[in-house]
Amino acid sequence: MGCAGSRQTKGDRLINISRTVKKIRKPKPWKLPQPITKSHLRQMRDEFWDTAPHYGGKKEIWDALQAAAEADLDLAQAIVDSAGIIIQNADLTVCYDERGAKYEIPKYVLSEPTNFIRDS
């Protein structure tokens, strides 16, 4: 393939099959080793997003992932799709950008644990 007069072979057609898009879903319920308050969880999330670009990858992708993590599932799917993010795990814990950079997001950033305690 490549010349004006070339024809697509069976092997070329197999390579050109578009990749399937993984749908985002909520993370499974999880529990921290020790109970946590909502304010402490918020602080942990803020610290993660503040330092995330230092883990590598593009800041724009981290910003898109943060917006997706804080949105409902339909909007999160639209954000991820429009940013060209490749989802490995449907719960967004592992993603890649189009250049192959890996982005890992801890579960505490994506959902709430089952063992909250009230703020005092």
Order of helices and strands: HEHHHEEEHE
Helix and strand content put the structural class at alpha+beta
Could you give me the name of the CATH homologous superfamily? Ub domain-containing protein, DC-UbP/UBTD2, N-terminal domain
Q: What is the CATH C level class, in words?
A: Mainly Alpha
Assign an overall shape: globular
What's the tally of helices? 5
Provide structural commentary.
The chain is an alpha+beta fold. The chain has a single domain (26-117), classed as Ub domain-containing protein, DC-UbP/UBTD2, N-terminal domain (Bacteriocin As-48, Chain A), CATH 1.20.225. 38% of the residues lie in helices and 10% in strands. It has five helices and five strands, in the order αβαααβββαβ. Helix 3 (59-69) runs antiparallel to helix 4. The longest helix is centred in the middle third of the chain and has 14 residues, at 38-51. The radius of gyration is 19 Å and the shape is globular. The relative contact order is 0.21. Residues 10-19 have low confidence and may be disordered.
What is shown here, in short?
InterPro entries: DC-UbP/UBTD2_N, DC-UbP/UBTD2_N_sf, UBTD1/2. With 120 residues, the protein is α+β, with helices and mostly antiparallel strands. The protein has helices spanning 10-15, 38-51, 59-69, 73-83, 107-110; strands at residues 36-37, 86-87, 94-96, 102-104, 116-117.
Supply the key terms.
DC-UbP/UBTD2_N_sf, DC-UbP/UBTD2_N, 5 helices, two-stranded parallel sheet, three-stranded antiparallel sheet, DC-UbP/UBTD2 N-terminal domain-containing protein, alpha+beta, 120 residues, UBTD1/2, 10% strand, Bacteriocin As-48, Chain A, single chain, globular
